[in-house]
Amino acid sequence: MRLLIIEDEPELNKTLCHYLHSGGYVVDSASDGREGLYLASEHPYDLAIIDLGLPKMDGIEVIKALREKRIGYPILILTARDNWQDKVVGLEAGADDYLVKPFHNEELRARVNALIRRSTGHASPVLNFGPVTLDTAAKVVHVDGQALELTSFEYNTLEYLVHHAGKVISKTELTEHLYDQDFDRDSNTIEVFIGRLRKKLDPEGSLKPITTLRGQGYRFNLTQS
């Protein structure tokens, strides 16, 4: 999943980027509202984390501008303004949730996970698709009750496909949402990850959880139970 952080405090920006990246997210960042609005408008994010007290363009203006552009991915507000009026203004501008500084990184991550799940129609962190179960909080996958050993890239690829089960996801979309900008888009790495996932999820070839549609992309086929 690809996140955008718009935060003008250098240390906090750096800390959040490092923490979320270590948790398996691809993270871009900006240090002022104008740069943040540009990135938020130009790239396909799964969620944005926006501080309210930004230079050049405050967070409320950024959020309003994004919603006016009909950009609908979830927005989590960070604010040092611990009063209900500012929270209400942020939510009414189009944000989905908020955190008051200072906060624990674990709470931030839990809220990020919850917002992404809800944006794709999943209320619970544990997603069941027949014999396949994903715990999106623990980032663990089980098949018939047995835990799979997946690399972070394999897990991230599977999680994105599962969040969009039944839809055809192109190689370009996977690359944009899951991998850093220096990722070689012309490589066959995505195909390799998909091949590994098929073997680990379906060693007997009976489930066929992931279909390749030539020239279009990939589709996770199992139905949520």
Gap between N and C termini, in Å? Answer: 23 Å
What is the CATH level 1 assignment of the largest domain?
Answer: Alpha Beta
SS summary, helix count: 8
Total separate domains: 2
- β-sheet strand percentage: 15-25%
Structural class estimated from helices and strands: alpha/beta
The Rg value, from CA coordinates, equals 18 Å
Q: Percentage of helical residues?
A: 40-55%
CATH superfamily name of the largest domain? Response regulator
Chain oligomer state? single chain
List SSEs in N-to-C order.
EHEHEHEHEHEEEEHHHEE
- Named CATH topology of the largest domain: Rossmann fold
Within the largest sheet, what's the order of strands? Answer: 2-1-3-4-5
- How many beta strands in the DSSP annotation? 11
Question: Which segments are poorly predicted (pLDDT under 50) over 5 or more consecutive residues?
Answer: none
Tell me the overall shape.
elongated
Give the biggest beta sheet.
5 strands, parallel
**Residue-averaged pLDDT:** 90
Query: Any idea what the CATH architecture of the largest domain is?
Result: 3-Layer(aba) Sandwich
